[in-house]
Amino acid sequence: MSHRIISLFTIALLAIGLAGCGQKAEPAAEAKPEAKHDENIVTLTPENLKHVTLKTEPATLSSLGTTLKAAGRISANLNKTAKVTSTFEGRLTKLNFDLNDRVTAGQVMALVESPELLGKQLEIKAPIEGVIIERKATTGELVDKAKEIYTISDPTQLWAIAEVKERDIAAVKANQDATFAALAYPDEKFHGKVILVGNQVESGSRTIEVRIAVDNADGRLKPGMFADVEIVTTILGNVLLIPDS
Predict the structure, then answer these.
(1) pTM, whole model, 2 decimals?
(2) I need a surface site. Which of 141, 147, 178, 188 has the fewest CB within 10 A?
(3) Residues 150, 155, 161, 162: is their CA dihedral positive or negative?
């Protein structure tokens, strides 16, 4: 009886072993390569896209200017400015104009009573057309040839004076284009052209004055205003450009 039980147990073990040998082993899953991350690609989720407005703009071939920045100021155009003085010593008896008044060449601006004219009053006339930007005398005041009575200037033609560093002056030349912003109009660009490069370095700041001609037909710019100047020193042609925005 015991031998029969052992034989049955042995047959059962063999059957289990054969059953195991008959099964095929599943092949190991091949490892998938990891996706490479490209740092130049930005992926936006649907949630991101709700808060982003995307705009495309075509790139174009054009010219690009390199600029030199300098601090500056607005000045009267001294080529269109004149001082009004008396040709004789005497007393001012009448002033016909005041600050900001416009005059034309030849208009009588003031009268001077002089002993040299034997009772006849001297008519002081405007030498140029423009606007009175200075008045330095009053009625009844004694004047001579050195006394300035008025200053007249044409406000439609001004200068922007840029203070260019000594190390940068070799790049600046006459006829170069320039732009500048004034403190009164920070979001607007005014345009001009370089007409003169100074020939003397200021000892303290080590700068040279560069004169820029500016059209001021609308009269918004005033002498004495500060300006941030940019002078176009080099122009590169056929450059691929996109808007700054």
Answers:
(1) 0.68
(2) 188
(3) positive
